[in-house]
Amino acid sequence: MKITIYTSDHCSACRKAIQFFQETGMPYHQLDVGYNKGNFDEMLRLGGIATPLIIVGTQTFHTFDPQKIKEALLRHDG
């Protein structure tokens, strides 16, 4: 399952999301929107207006909610 996290340096929720995926051992792709306009534009096209924007498979999360993300991961594995 593909996991993408759009992040920025000043975002504490981004750091928590990254730590969450590192602790669960789930591979993820991190895209910084603060220093890369292409990543920022892509985040906007996906409906994101703030970081973190987390995409787990086909589900999009506009905030870091570990419980909802765990549920999405379980649905995908189940």
Automatic annotation (TrEMBL):
InterPro entries: Glutaredoxin (IPR002109), Thioredoxin-like_sf (IPR036249)
UniProt xrefs under SUPFAM superfamilies: Thioredoxin-like (SSF52833)
All copies of domain Glutaredoxin, residue ranges: 3-58
CDD domains the record matches: NrdH (cd02976)
Protein name, entry field: Glutaredoxin domain-containing protein
Native organism: Paenibacillus validus
